[in-house]
Write a structure and sequence with these properties.
Length: 150
């Protein structure tokens, strides 16, 4: 159904990027997403990787809520790109996702609307890569010809 309904696909893509824009500016669409109150930056990725990120109140990097939110938010990034620009290659989507994530973190630092964190770039890249893998699997099954006994 979504293959034929281009208006719905475009609306999804535009809506997704508007949501990212609101997140960058710190505009909360719901109190549920009001989890980040600190400002500044964190570029210390090696400490987090060496001891699994004993940072916020002895919580590991993988148990932090914002880590998982960033992964989930960027799971849909490849679908949004594909809905706006059909046929975009997977490696280009991942490169765009990395660049977008770095730009988001730079804007958060420059505008002082959140915590510019290198771990967010890593989480966003993981999310976009997982979403791209789903698209790759769907493309793989879609392109294989159906078996017709004959």
């Amino acid at each position: 159904m979504l293959d034929r309904n281009t208006l719905l696909k475009k609306a999804f893509g535009v809506g997704y990027f508007m949501m990212l824009f609101f997140a960058v500016l710190g505009i909360r669409l719901s109190p549920v997403f009001n989890f980040r109150i600190s400002h500044g930056y964190n570029l210390d990725v090696f400490t987090h990787l060496s001891d699994f990120g004993k940072i916020n109140y002895n919580m590991s990097l993988f148990s932090r809520f914002d880590w998982w939110i960033n992964i989930v938010m960027f799971l849909f990034f490849p679908f949004a790109i594909r809905s706006l620009v059909a046929g975009t290659r997977i490696y280009k989507i991942i490169i765009i996702a990395i660049f977008t994530s770095i730009c988001i973190e730079l804007l958060q630092y420059i505008l002082d609307v959140g915590l510019a964190d290198i771990n967010d770039v890593i989480a966003n890249t993981i999310g976009a890569s997982l979403g791209s893998m789903v698209i790759w699997i769907f493309d793989k099954f879609k392109k294989e010809p159906e078996f017709q006994p004959g």
